[in-house]
């Protein structure tokens, strides 16, 4: 067995000019590295992405929320389910569940998480998610996940990042219904919740204690077979 130290390297970009809705969407890219504590050799083992939607800033700038969510096709479904776009607020069924999330309308969409196959099954994904929430929980009032098993993703989407290899998804669950159920259960074990009346999304509000996520210990090293 060998012990690994994990490091998560965050990056995003911005700029000047007429960015329109993109100014309020921060794509935060997370490179996941593992280092053998004996050899100190560092290897890129995965990637993740958080989309931070700056709703508060958009409203302050009088930017149209429907136009904002229409900027990114992946966000349109989420915006339509999570927000009362006409009244510029979180929809009522979510506010009933998490009244405190109205303190910040910004939302963090945990958009993607990929690990090289030999590093799966050792709790690394859980640590990536906890670390991401830890660093961005003061920036938004709600984290949202639209669970989607990557083995059913089109090749044109995987081609967005040449680092990914479609062969990594061989051997994963081929039944789409079961795969969705398994992935949903994985996030629920971390404390993400379904809300009645909201289809296909899972939620975590950082204003409330999450006992399940609290069990993930970022101070622990990751142990994998040699």
Give your account of this protein's structure:
The protein contains 8 helices and 9 strands. The protein has 226 residues and is of the alpha+beta class. The strands form 2 sheets. The protein has a 7-stranded mixed β-sheet with strand order 8-7-6-3-2-1-9, covered by helices on one side. Strands 4-5 form a two-stranded antiparallel sheet. Strand 2 (25-36) and strand 3 (42-53) form a beta hairpin. Helix 2 packs antiparallel against helix 3 (73-82). The model has no long low-confidence stretch (mean pLDDT 90).
User: How would a textbook summarize the main sheet?
Assistant: 7 strands, mixed
Q: What would you call the shape?
A: globular
pLDDT < 50 runs, ≥5 residues: none
Strand content: 25-35%
Overall pLDDT score = 90
Output the structural class: alpha+beta
| Helix-residue proportion | 25-40%
Distance from N terminus to C terminus (CA atoms, Å) equals 5 Å
**If helices are DSSP runs of H or I spanning 4 or more residues, what is the number of helices?**
8
Strand order, largest beta sheet: 8-7-6-3-2-1-9
Rg result: 18 Å
Q: Quick one: how many beta strands?
A: 9
**SSE run:** EEEHHHEEHEHEHHEHE
